[in-house]
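Whiteboard transcription, Tuesday session. T.W. wrote the structure tokens on the left side:
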């Protein structure tokens, strides 16, 4: 059995897009993450250092979006998940990335990926 630690609706600003005008502005991105983690040890000890620190992960994502630029959200999602796996020793991550303003008639468009740490 594997537990899930999740972050929903994390909103970040990023320079993202293929058009010249998009490369000059920041746009809103919305992240949902599900990360596999065995929560029995942190629950049994009440020790924050044994958990997946969702505040640290959230801050990592916000900083990543503030400092990196990509044309495609697909590229941003792949690079970010690889970095999260490495930085936080994650074994499995499901990331949903939405770009709410991309299609005016849609509430949001985006990608959803699921990646595993290499064994």
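and on the right, the sequence the group agreed on:
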């Amino acid at each position: 059995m594997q537990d899930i630690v999740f972050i929903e609706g994390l909103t970040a600003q990023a320079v993202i897009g293929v058009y010249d005008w998009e490369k000059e502005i920041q746009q809103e991105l919305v992240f949902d993450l599900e990360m596999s983690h065995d929560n029995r040890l942190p629950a049994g000890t009440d020790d924050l250092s044994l958990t997946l620190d969702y505040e640290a992960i959230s801050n990592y994502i916000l900083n990543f979006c503030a400092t990196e630029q990509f044309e495609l959200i697909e590229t941003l999602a792949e690079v970010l998940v690889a970095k999260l796996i490495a930085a936080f020793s994650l074994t499995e991550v499901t990331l949903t990335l939405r770009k709410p303003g991309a299609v005016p008639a849609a509430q949001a468009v985006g990608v959803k990926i699921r990646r595993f740490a290499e064994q």
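Someone added at the bottom: The mean pLDDT is 94.
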